[in-house]
Amino acid sequence: MAEAHQAVAFQFTVTPDGIDLRMSHEALKQIYLSGVHSWKKKFIRFKNGIITGVYPASPSSWLIVVVGVMSTMYAKIDPSLGIIAKINRTLDTTGCMSNQTQNIVSGILFGTGLWVALIVTMRYSLKMLLSYHGWMFAEHGKLSAGTRVWMALVKLFSGRKPMLYSFQTSLPRLPVPAVKDTVNRYLESVRPLMDDGEFRRMEGLAKDFAFNLGPRLQWYLKLKSWWATNYVSDWWEEYVYLRGRGPIMVNSNYFAMDFLYLSPTTLQAARAGNVIHAILLYRKKLDRQEIKPILLMGSTVPLCSAQWERMFNTSRIPGEESDTLQHVKDSKHIVVYHKGRYFKVWLYHDGRLLKPREIEQQMQRILDDDSEPQTGEKKLAALTAGDRVPWARARQAYFSHGKNKQSLDAVEKAAFFVTLDDIEQGYRKEDPVRSLDAYAKSLIHGRCYDRWFDKTFTLIVFKNGRMGLNAEHSWADAPIVGHLWENVMATEYLELGYSEDGHCKGDTNQNIPIPTKLQWEIPEECQEVIERSLSTAIALADDVDFHSFFFDAFGKGLIKKAKTSPDGFVQLALQLAHYRDMGKFSLTYEASMTRLFREGRTETVRSCTVESCNFVRTMEDPTESNENKLKLFQLAAAKHQHLYRLAMTGAGIDRHLFCLYVVSKYLAVDSPFLKEVLSEPWRLSTSQTPQQHIDLKKNPEMLSCGGGFGPVADDGYGVSYIILDEDSIHFHVSSKISCSDTDSHRFGKNIQKAMVDIMGLFNLSKNCTK
């Protein structure tokens, strides 16, 4: 608010009698309150920095240690083995302290040093304990005595009341696997996809690499792993995401959906008001590190929280060769898009966060504004949807000065971006298939010019009050956005609520200044670039086929009765469905996380294995007995779980080979093996969205649809799924319409049939023919 009032805080008029100076007390008040708010945030960040910096100890423990040292000194006991006396003699040479003062200062210095040594010891001990991953490979539900002792020690060294970033310095580094181990695992993964001749050729390339070039590249990678916090993440962010020159819309960005059946209000402005406020409450907790770190193994093992750092106030900035991520420490506004206009909305008034009803009021003011878009403004965001190089050049040429720069800064430095869409979307009971498919396509690309695809996320609120999220991928992975989204939906529905007439609770405030329209001067040359980018984006959007469906024949409840991992069950069903759909096996990507390590992101689980192929072939053989099919299913499921655990514990295949490839490029050496490995298409790309926050047992009506993404290969499928509750799973399937071999709806039917067919192998009570 302060920035909005600064222009009118001081007014003066030149008269024959001199200068008449007038001050706006209201404006000065807003400036003062804004300053107080900023200093409060700085203090909280400083305080949290200290608390996190000394973790697993606490600032108060310093006083305990120092008092303990001083007490022993006055009891004529030297706890320092002579160190305090040496400090005393050193201080004595200054000649500016009395003996008593020297004793006190010596005790405090030694106590502080002892306290720091204890912190370092505890932190290093915790890091060593967290480097152990044997618990991951133990049989589910059974803990050995050794694992129980290990868990007790982890909890002992973990301190009390950890904040979001408390464990960061205690997390181990991602280990670099041995080249031979990675190569062997790779060969095992491609064996079912190649005939004997192809495999022998690949085996020759692989072994030559493992014995010759591989060790040389590995040496550099080992050196990086000792020096850098994580040997993968920075290269992964740069080369996989930021250096991509094609459109990020569909190809990289992903989406999250609203509740499936629940519609808290049909008022667009009200829904936006509550949800924006809930997002800002989450940001407030994030700034204060009040979000608890995610812990596994009965709240014992922490996951890395680094990806939360750039959730807000961040935008992807286009470049000629590589994009960058621009992050500002704080942002007091959002930018809202509606019917071709951009509005800047301040989030604070009177030094406080706007209340939900006040945000609703601001959204309604935007909806009621009937002004026309400025020339070139309506389709401006198409620049973020098309190829990156034209956008980078246009940004430099037309948005680097004047009002265009000011307006673009407002967008890029906003806390996040909001679209008030003028169409209705969401699940419709009378047409569930087409309504969910259209809803998914609207979230992933919209009209190609009504989402700012470079922002970390765009909140989309539709005319009928349904909503969704479009997220940029480079800054973080889907579970991080999922954590935000579930918290926001829970806060909105369970805490904020709506009045009987559908409005946000509370009162409006007419003293809040109206949203400001951003001003643009977009020349004809830039408009031509916008149109070309839009043509590229529309061609891409029109080629995407989405099928989003709710599977309620059974869920994780029945799968667990079958003594199988729900994720492993779904992955094998996808293998069976894909084989039935395409008539062959394909290289399969399943995203796993490596956040057990500091700054870890993802690793690939290659779900198409020898064991899964054997199972699928057996399922398609009518002469095989159910007993044999079940046996092969269990072998394939166990193999999948083992591969998933290897990926989570740093022993995956693809990130290691990717980094070796990057090193080879830096050294300007050619590797036929690495070149071939990294050019292999992922024709089946899959990802599970975890259910993290919403308790469906307590609130079954809060069933969500999860989210999805576009196909990775032009002739393949993208499949996202969320295992919701005991009785349901939601799937999102994507493919390219231009590929005659793929059909998302056909594949969706194959998935449902495969799920039911596999469950039919088990003699369980629930009817699985639904």
From TrEMBL:
- Spans traversing the lipid bilayer: 104-126
Q: What InterPro entries would the database entry show?
A: Carn_acyl_trans, CAT-like_dom_sf, Cho/carn_acyl_trans, Cho/carn_acyl_trans_2, CPT_N
Instruction: Kindly indicate whether the keyword Transport belongs to this entry.
Output: yes
The metabolic or biological pathway listed in the UniProt record of this protein is: Lipid metabolism; fatty acid beta-oxidation
Regarding the membrane, this protein is recorded as:
Multi-pass membrane protein
Q: Which GO terms describe its biological process?
A: carnitine metabolic process; fatty acid beta-oxidation
Sorted alphabetically, which Gene3D superfamilies does this protein's record hold? 6.10.250.1760, Chloramphenicol acetyltransferase-like domain, Choline/Carnitine o-acyltransferase, domain 2
Q: Which UniProt keywords apply?
A: Acyltransferase, Fatty acid metabolism, Lipid metabolism, Membrane, Mitochondrion, Transferase, Transmembrane, Transmembrane helix, Transport
Residue ranges annotated for the Carnitine O-palmitoyltransferase N-terminal domain, each copy included: 1-47
- Membership in a protein family: Belongs to the carnitine/choline acetyltransferase family.
* Protein name as catalogued: carnitine O-palmitoyltransferase
Give the gene symbol: CPT1A
